[in-house]
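Lab notebook, page 48
Experiment: co-folding of the full assembly
Goal: obtain a model of how the components sit together before planning crosslinking
Operator: M.T.
Materials (sequences as entered):
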Amino acid sequence: MTLIVCAFKQEASLIKKRLSLKKIDDNKFEIFSNSKYILIISGIGKIKSSIATTYIFAKFQIDYAVNFGFAGGVSDISELFLINKIFDISTDSYFFPDILLDLDMRESSLSSFDRVVTKSDIDSLKTELVDMEASAFFEASSKFLALNSIAVLKIVSDNFSSDFLSKDFIDSLLEKNIDRVLYFLESFSFQTKSFLSVEVLKKLDTIYSNLHFTTTQKSLILNLSKYHFIRFNNLDILDSFLDIKTESKNEAKKVFKNLENELSK
Amino acid sequence: MSYLSNFSHIYIEDRAKNYKLTKEILDKLDSKIISINHYKDVFNRYNQDYRLQKNSMKLILAVKESNFLYEASSLIQTQNYQNFFYTPTILNCIYDCHYCFLQGMYPSSNIVLFVNIEDFFDEVEKKLKTLNRMFLSISYDTDILAFEKLFGISKKWIEFSQNFNNLELEIRTKSVNYKTIKNLEFNRNIHINWTLSPEEVVARFEDKTPSLDARLKSIKSALDDNRRVNLVIDPVVKIDNYKNKYSDFFKEIDEYLSLERVESFIIGVFRISNQYLKKIKKSNLDSEIVFYPYKIDNQVASYADSDEILDFIIKELLKYVKRDKILTL
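Observation: model returned without errors.
Model output:
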């Protein structure tokens, strides 16, 4: 499942609509989902972003995480960027997403501030874009996912002006970029599945459970199953072990040895 | 969906920007440039996927501050040389051999190039003053010749080494880039050590490397130029019916090269630190060589019958060359 973190409702509005995300019952955050995506409205700022991100990781199985929203930039209003370097202004630390896929995205660097950035900050900026969430989202997500599975997508909404952004203007930015955002989300969710199928993993779980294998025994059998599968392109051998159950340690040890020998062939 | 090409992005330490080598490389590539403070900020990040990164390796240009030379570890073939050192001008390799220890050693498969090559030279020069003789491998944490068209580092090392008569330089490679150094004038202190395997091993376990035939052509060219060529049959991999396959392999390479022209043969049966192997197993590489049920002895994983395999390989080689040309760990 892919997590999408947006700071405020309007950033999420079009994604919600186009992906047909339905609100799920939660008393802490506004969360929307379908079978592939889960979107959370974090609120504005780094602390809120990291709380919301961690909240989802604690409750759901997440394979990919994307922070989507608006950013300030010196130029390129309404353009969509994939962020390749994130600078956290308060901790003076950098984060680097791994960009591996050829998705024809424009890239940029971004600084995450704790406050609204104004034109007076422009000369001291170390990056092209600024926001108030990305570094916290990235740091929180990277505790749970490989760095290539985390992305930050930003549309430049303003040039550090304090002028109010109208709903129509925001909607126009989203409309302009939504197809590319959805294409990115779809393409980004490529899987690095284990080469053992879910069915095989379930069979192994049954065997482990029936025979009360230790963690070391499980690890050994899993690795040998991979070895056997690579050599023979099947693991039919597991079928003959599925119905063996025992509470006796000695009996389980014998079955383990037998399975180990069969898989090592 | 496809992956970005290798070196689609180049991360450059701020202090590396003004080095000549940096400028030479940037002139050859059209990559996105990302400035960094220190190469470890990118290379040592937590939670990188080594295997997926192999599909789109990035380049990191950095300045090395210390540790320009390392003494050989016990798992390295020192080829009976005293004072055996290796030097890490490049970290990681463009090839993707399933058995490679680099997968277990580094957190990232991105390539680091240290552009302050002159500092490496200074360190070697200093060390040489304290030793009678020094054997220096410049290609242990990488395949330095494989990068030659882009980095030109082998050429720089070769030229540097010509100033000393007590420095032996080893270039260990699987590449076919001998042509890039062929026209250089260099003394017999340069050892070009080609790693060779039967084509089945190349095809199954040495992704992105040149074929056996292509390597043989390159080796023949070096032999014809009277270079010091050694063949590295390491790792020997226990494929099914390995005896016949290695026997045919030696016959094939002898027919093409005439093995008596080769200076020595460095032989080793596959072995790897168990700690590295455990890490590689977690990386989702679906390779038989990774999941083989090895025997673990003193934290080193190898075949239970590795002594027998080694004896067999030596016996086969003895059909072509004398025993004193065969080196083992």
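Interpretation: The first strand of chain B starts at residue 9 and ends at 13.
Next step: discuss with group before ordering constructs.
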